Each structure stands twice: as structure tokens, then as C-alpha cells.
Amino acid sequence: MGRRIKAAILGPGNIGTDLMFKILKRGANLRLEMLCGIQADSKGLALARENGIATSANGIDDILGAPDIRIAFDATSAAAHTKHARLFREADITVIDLTPAAIGPYVIPVVNLDEHLNSPNLNLVTCGGQAAVPIVKAITRVAETPYAEIVAVMSSKSAGPGTRRNIDEYTQTTARAIVELGGTQRGKAIILLNPAEPPMTMSSTIYAKVERSDQEAITDSVDRMVSNVQSYVPGYRLKMPPQFDGDKVTVMIEVEGAGDYLPTYSGNLDIETCAALAVGEAVAGNMLDAGGAG
After folding, report:
1. In what order do the strands lie in the sheet with 144-155?
2. Does 69 share its domain with 112?
3. Looking at residue 47, what is its pLDDT?
4. Which run of H or E residues covers position 286?
5. Which of 226, 208, 218 is nearest to 149 (CA)?
6. Mind listing the pLDDT tens digit for each residue in 64-105?
7. Any catalytic annotation for residue 274?
8. What is the DSSP letter of 4?
9. Tens-place pLDDT, residues 109-157
10. Does residue 283 share a domain with residue 222?
11. Hey, is 159 helix, strand or coil?
12. Domain with 259 in it: what CATH number?
């Protein structure tokens, strides 16, 4: 292997563990050094040890004290990240935030990653934002769009305690991202947890109000965006192409997980970890280009 940037993951829950396996399988610029949590007997830490990754139950402290860690992925909670962000900044560790804390700039790989490669804190919005905001952006880049609304539906089984604690932050952060990254004047986000058995695959429906729309241009723009997202989220697909009703456009997408650690129906978690890997690889590549290495 060539030069790589040393990285750590904080939070050994479902998201952190799935991200660990993604980095181990597909990381080219990243070298995962450590997975940290606060419960010594957690399943995620046990799996990390089985795969030769150092672990700690001392939370953020051992990452801050580890030599040459340049990038950290925070997969804890929005409340916890508000404390972690300052500590990572003081330690000169770039943090990729997988919580809805939104302390750093919102980053969605196909929308604005290149603008934030040198940011000390990059926020991955939410799973609903990663799934739906690219479609909103695809519409707004070819049509004036005063309003967009997304409804994300996911299996109850794929929404762990962290997700449930962050529901308010989730909807608020996603709605802001619809405006700031999607390019609309107003936005709204709704999350629904579906208890169906067998568990349903995550889907998002995007509703947009457009002015002077060109149906062919919107359809082409959405198709191109879906293809771009698929470059780092293979299970991302168009479930319903743009449907037009006067000044309203409706699009539905579905996300099937890769099954690296989580069940394939957990596309809501998979798209977040896929985005984290894509952002981490790009940030690490930028560091390597600048002459740094772990």
C-alpha cells in the first residue's frame, strides 16, 4: 500500500461499525488506526479487535492522544459532537461529523465536497439529506424552485437509539440543507419510521414546486444526478422518475445497503457511511497532495 492518512472512528454503534468495514474494504487514502467508544463490552469494539484495529473505551481521549491521527469520524450523537468539535479543533484533527449537529459546513459529495476539502469540520447532514438533497439540486439547477419537501421512510429496525434521540435535529438540519445546498427558497423534511415486516428498504420522496419548468431538462438532470450518486452509493436508485402535475414535480428514490455490516434494508445508514467514506477519502487525498501522510 502507498502512503495513507491515519484515521479514527469515535462511536462503535451501527454507523461507526459499518463505516469501519467500509474503510477496511475500500479505503485507499485512509488507514484506520482506532475505533473508540465508552462501553468496553460493545459489539463494535469487539469486531474491531477481531479485525486488527486498536480499540478504546475512553471515548475521545485516546484519539486526541494518539500520534499522527489526522482525520476522525464522529458517529456519536448531535449533543456529544458539540463537545467533541472543539476538542478535535484544538488537536488539529479534521473531523467528519456523521451526526446532525451541523457545526461545520454541510457536505454532500456530489453537491459541494470540493468546496470544503480544507474545512476542519465537515457535517454530513443526515441520511435523508444525503439521499434527497442531490435530487433537489438536480431540479433547481435547471428550474427555479421556490419550495421543496422530502419525506424519508425507513424501517424501524434501522433506526437505533441515536437516530431516535436526534429526530428533531434530523428534521431541522435536513430542512436547512434543502435550502442551503439544494438551492430552494424554502424547504421541509419529514421522517417516518415504518415497523413493517419484513423490513422495508429506505426510500425518499421529493416534492418540488417549480416555475417555468422544462420537463425534459429536469428529467435529464435527475438521471445524471442519480448516476453521480451511484458512483459512491451503489444501492442508490431511482424508484420513480420525475412526475409532473402543473407546477409540481415528484421524484422517488430508494437506497439499498451494501451489506458490509448492516442489513441491506438499512439504506438510510448505508448512504451516510458511504458518504463518510467518500468525504474521508477526498479529504485524505487532499492532505496527501499537500505532502502529509500518516
Report:
1. 186-194, 144-155, 202-211, 248-255, 236-245
2. yes
3. 98
4. helix 267-289
5. 208
6. 999 899 999 999 998 999 999 999 999 999 999 999 889 999
7. no
8. -
9. 999 999 999 999 999 999 999 999 999 999 999 999 999 999 999 999 9
10. no
11. coil
12. 3.30.360.10
Is the domain of 152 the same as that of 111?
no
**Pairing relationship of beta strands 71-74 and 248-255 according to DSSP bridges:** unpaired
Residues 259 and 135 in one domain: yes
Same domain, 97 and 133: no
* Predicted local confidence at residue 162, as pLDDT: 66
Q: Are residues 185 and 257 in the same domain?
A: yes
Establish whether the linkage from the previous residue to 198 is cis, with ω within 30° of 0.
yes
In a domain, 294, yes or no: no
**Whole-angstrom distance, CA of residue 153 vs CA of residue 151:** 6
Do 256 and 163 lie in one domain? The reply is yes
Q: With 80 as the cut, is the pLDDT of residue 163 above it?
A: no
The three cell numbers of residue 202 are 429506505
Residues 131 and 253 reside in one and the same domain: yes
Catalytic residue (choose from 127, 249, 279, 284): 127
Task: Report DSSP letters for 64-106, one per residue.
Answer: HHSTT--EEEE-S-HHHHHHHHHHHHHTT-EEEE-STT--S-B
Q: Which one-letter amino acid corresponds to residue 191?
A: I
Global pTM reads 0.95
> Residue written as cell 420537463?
215
Q: Which domain holds residue 30?
A: 5-124+272-289
* Residue 200 DSSP code: P
Q: Which residue has the cell 438499512?
A: 266
Mean local confidence (pLDDT), 5-21: 97
